[in-house]
């Protein structure tokens, strides 16, 4: 009797899943593309300052905590993003010059100057909205000359 009930349940589950449409991973949430100017991400921002001044960043530049720059794990170096502090609505445009943050589940590391502009240096962390407004890949595509003969 128990075997028959398991067999019936197994048959039911087989029919249920065999009749359902296949799962498409394309419809699942994914990391947003940096080529889309409407790209918006939400997360926690931190800042880094004087201790890192003069060290080389991933882009090869020397870090200056007085510049409006930031570190992000996946955005292309040179990408400009608008970062908005969700607590007070203040925002700043920064350029991604480094990789990070490498601590916790943080979205972006801002220079001290950028953190001051959006008002969270005294807290160290804040919730932010990040919107890509410019990236070098899009600029390179837009600046390409058309082929001769309209091709």
Reading the helices and strands in chain order gives HEEEEEHEH
At CATH's second level, what is the architecture of the domain at 40-137? Beta Barrel
Strand elements, count:
6
User: What's the mean pLDDT score?
Assistant: 78
Strand order of the largest sheet: 1-5-2-4-3-6
Report the uncertain regions: 19-35
Helix content: 10-25%
- From the spread of the alpha carbons, the general shape counts as globular
CATH-defined topology of the domain at 40-137: Barwin-like endoglucanases
What does this structure look like?
It is built from three helices and six strands; from the N terminus they run αβββββαβα. It is of the alpha/beta class. It has a domain of 98 residues: Barwin-like endoglucanases, CATH 2.40.40. Strands 1-5-2-4-3-6 form a six-stranded mixed beta barrel. The longest helix is centred in the N-terminal third of the chain and has 18 residues.
Short description:
It is built from 3 helices and 6 strands. By secondary structure, the chain is α/β, with parallel strands linked by helices.
């Amino acid at each position: 009797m128990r075997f028959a009930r398991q067999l019936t349940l197994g048959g039911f589950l087989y029919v249920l899943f065999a009749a359902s449409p296949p799962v498409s991973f394309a419809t699942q949430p994914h990391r947003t593309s940096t080529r889309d100017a409407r790209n918006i991400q939400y997360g926690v921002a931190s800042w880094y300052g004087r201790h890192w001044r003069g060290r080389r960043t991933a882009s090869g530049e020397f870090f200056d905590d007085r510049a409006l720059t930031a570190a992000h794990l996946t955005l292309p170096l040179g990408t400009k993003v608008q970062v908005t502090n969700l607590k007070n609505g203040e925002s700043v445009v920064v350029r991604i010059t480094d990789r990070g943050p490498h601590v916790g589940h943080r979205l972006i590391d801002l220079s001290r100057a950028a953190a001051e502009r959006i008002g969270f240096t005294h807290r160290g962390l804040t919730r932010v909205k990040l919107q890509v407004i410019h990236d070098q890949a899009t600029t390179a595509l837009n600046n390409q000359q058309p082929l001769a003969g309209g091709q």
